[in-house]
From TrEMBL:
Pathway info: Carbohydrate metabolism; galactose metabolism
Xref: InterPro entries: Epimerase_deHydtase (IPR001509), NAD(P)-bd_dom_sf (IPR036291), UDP_G4E (IPR005886)
GO-annotated biological processes: galactose catabolic process via UDP-galactose, Leloir pathway
Family affiliation: Belongs to the NAD(P)-dependent epimerase/dehydratase family.
Protein name per its UniProtKB record: UDP-glucose 4-epimerase
Record gene name: galE
Assembly, per entry: Homodimer.
Catalytic function, reaction form: UDP-alpha-D-glucose = UDP-alpha-D-galactose
UniProt GO MF annotations: UDP-glucose 4-epimerase activity
Length: 336
């Protein structure tokens, strides 16, 4: 059994990883200030420390108080649009919290660090599918903040020997197939939950941004990776770090789906129409973003189990239908 510190473990991706760690028998401590996360997303037996990562003394105390085998760092500001209104806040907060946490981990003798990075590092990609060798060129302050965080971790390795994995997620989607966890953001900005909410009458009609892209149906194509597959990637990557080297992986399904395909699938799965209107393109939205997951597959044996859009939407819908108002009025998820 190993022990891990998970920042942002009450949030969407982090909570699914916490559940996966608990299920394989690891001990987990979560730091989350609950600005977006939910207490009810933390399984029984997991200690929750409610604290802002900016509270360096508290973070150092937590790291010094337990002996951790690794840190998984999910807590961040992560809204692309907001980052273009408040670029300095995004860059300052995401970078300083990541490096402050890495520094505390090094001082506490913890040598494994996993960073939630993003496909936004690649901006308008130079080729498709996007492999790890593609040019890095974020077009948002959010993407820039994660690129800077990755670079800081490279220095932490060179000088202090901290082994890290930077996982560039594409679009995390879906929910725990057993229905214990789901996606509950406020505000919600992700396409699949927005489309489901619109279909169920739980949210406003959907806006489809741009119908004149150079794609088969004119709408943007994105790579949706199931959150349970994403969690599995984290577990495998912890094993790679144990072997003593730092890694960077693109974590995506490897196939893309258009916005219209998402709407069609949500309509089929829910059996209800998705009310939507069309709007102009959004600035900074490339036509197609699809990951090459070859490196991750070859080096870790990872294979997505829920790659079909139907499975992704079905699990997301099942959770939302059972929890129309999210975690706040739902029962605590069953213990792992
Ligand atoms: N969801 C995606 O599709 C996606 C894609 C690419 C990258 N990412 C990255 O993955 C990570 C997790 O994303 P998510 O969708 O689960 O986000 P989320 O907002 O659901 O979870 C983040 C959690 O961190 C907590 N948090 C934020 N700032 C904090 C701070 N300063 N101190 C303590 N806790 C804090 C929030 O309360 C929340 O529980 C983020 O770093 C994000 O940038 C997500």
């Amino acid at each position: 059994m190993a022990r891990f510190l998970v920042t942002g473990g009450a949030g969407y991706v982090g909570s699914h990883v916490v559940l996966a760690l608990k299920e394989r028998g690891d001990d987990v401590v979560v730091i989350d200030d609950l600005r977006q996360g939910h207490r009810a997303a933390i399984p029984e037996g997991v200690e929750l420390v409610v604290a802002d990562l900016a509270d360096r003394a508290r973070v150092a105390d937590v790291l010094a108080g337990w002996k951790f085998d690794g840190v998984l760092h999910f807590a961040a500001l992560s809204l692309v649009g907001e980052s273009m209104r408040e670029p300095l806040r995004y860059i300052t907060e995401n970078l300083s919290n990541t490096l402050g946490l890495a520094d505390a981990a090094i001082k506490a003798g913890c040598q494994r660090f996993v960073l939630s990075s993003t496909a936004a590092l690649f901006g308008f990609p130079e080729r498709l599918p996007i492999d790890e060798g593609c040019r890095l060129g974020p077009v948002s302050a959010y993407g820039e903040s994660k690129l800077m965080a990755e670079r800081g971790l490279e220095w932490a390795e060179r000088v202090h020997g901290l082994r890290s994995a930077s996982l560039r997620y594409f679009n995390a989607a879906g929910a725990d197939p057993q229905g214990r966890l789901g996606e509950d953001h406020n505000p919600e900005t992700h396409l699949i939950p927005l489309a489901i909410n619109a279909a169920l009458g739980l949210g406003p009609e959907l806006t489809l941004f741009g119908t004149d892209y150079d794609t088969p149906d004119g709408t943007c194509i994105r790579d949706y990776v199931h959150v349970t597959d994403l969690a599995d990637a984290h577990l495998r990557v912890l094993g790679v770090l144990e072997q003593g080297r730092s890694v960077r992986y693109n974590v995506g399904n490897g196939s893309g789906y258009s916005v219209r395909e998402v709407i069609d699938t949500v309509q089929r799965v829910t059996g209800r129409p998705v009310p939507y209107r069309t709007g102009p393109r959004r600035l900074g939205d490339p036509a197609v973003l699809v990951a090459s997951n070859t490196l991750l597959r070859e080096e870790t044996g990872w294979t997505p189990q829920y790659a079909a859009l139907e499975d992704i939407v079905r699990t997301a819908y099942a959770w939302r239908a059972a929890h129309p108002h999210g975690f706040d009025d739902s029962a605590r998820p069953v213990a792992a």
